[in-house]
Structure formats: structure tokens, C-alpha cells
Design a protein that fits this description.
With about 130 residues, this protein is an alpha/beta fold. The chain has a single domain, classed as Rossmann fold (3-Layer(aba) Sandwich), CATH 3.40.50.2300. About 35% of the residues lie in helices and about 20% in strands. Helix 1 links the parallel strand 1 and strand 2.
């Protein structure tokens, strides 16, 4: 995968599993990203999603029983592209939302490729699900 689309980008990680958060952080850092977070709780993630400059985000759908969707709503309102990560399959995306999702377990290179594609899209298309 070409790292040009991710190099220099600020990417928020919202993930409550520390090993997965570290894996994502290392992979993004290797691509030249500046990692924001990781945040393990919605209450920690919302200010990060709302206040700082961001180019993209990776969001675990379930944070210890708490839904990440309030964070996704903040990012969507700001037109910041994000990718949901879930062990619950397509049912994890709220009805009426066309938010991109990858199932866990995931291939980190695929996650980086999808995130890169999302970040590279025009802002009005950034939260639409990419084709598989």
C-alpha cells in the first residue's frame, strides 16, 4: 500500500482493547501519521473528536458496553472521515447510516487502505462506505 495518502495525517484512535489500540497506533505511526489518542472511552474521545484538527479516525463500535456512535456523530458533523471497527458485523452500523465498517478480526493493512481511501475522497463523500 502507498503511504502517501496517510503520511502527515492526524488520525484519532478510539479503541478500548489496549493491544488493538497499540497495533493500530504502531501501524499508523509507521505510515507517517500523527496519532491522536488512543481514547478508550466515549467521554475521553468526544473532546478529541470535537476540538482538534483531524484528518481521519478509527473507531471501535463497542467500548466496554458503550456505543461509539456519539463520537461518530461528532466526526460526521465535522466531515472527518472515519472507519468503524466491530466484531458484530454489518448489524453494528445504525439504521439509516452509511458509515464504513470493517469486521474484527481485521487485517491491519486493509484497515489502512480503507482509511487512506476515505481520507483521499472529497469531503461530501468521506463517510460513505467504500466498496469492499
Amino acid at each position: 500500500m502507498s503511504s502517501s495518502a496517510l503520511s502527515g495525517k492526524r488520525v484519532l484512535i478510539v479503541e478500548d482493547e489496549s493491544l488493538i489500540a497499540m497495533l493500530l497506533e504502531m501501524a499508523l505511526t509507521d505510515e507517517g501519521c500523527e496519532v491522536v489518542g488512543p481514547a478508550a472511552r466515549v467521554s475521553d474521545a468526544i473532546p478529541l473528536a470535537r476540538d482538534g484538527p483531524l484528518d481521519g479516525a478509527l473507531l471501535d463500535v463497542n467500548l466496554g458496553g458503550e456505543s461509539v456512535f456519539p463520537v461518530a456523530e461528532v466526526l460526521a458533523a465535522r466531515a472527518v472521515p472515519f472507519l468503524l471497527l466491530s466484531g458484530y458485523g454489518d448489524e453494528a452500523v445504525p439504521e439509516g447510516r452509511d458509515w464504513p465498517l470493517r469486521s474484527k478480526p481485521f487485517d491491519v493493512n486493509e484497515v489502512l487502505a480503507v482509511l487512506s481511501e476515505l481520507i483521499s475522497r472529497p469531503a461530501d463523500q468521506s463517510t460513505a462506505a467504500p466498496s469492499p
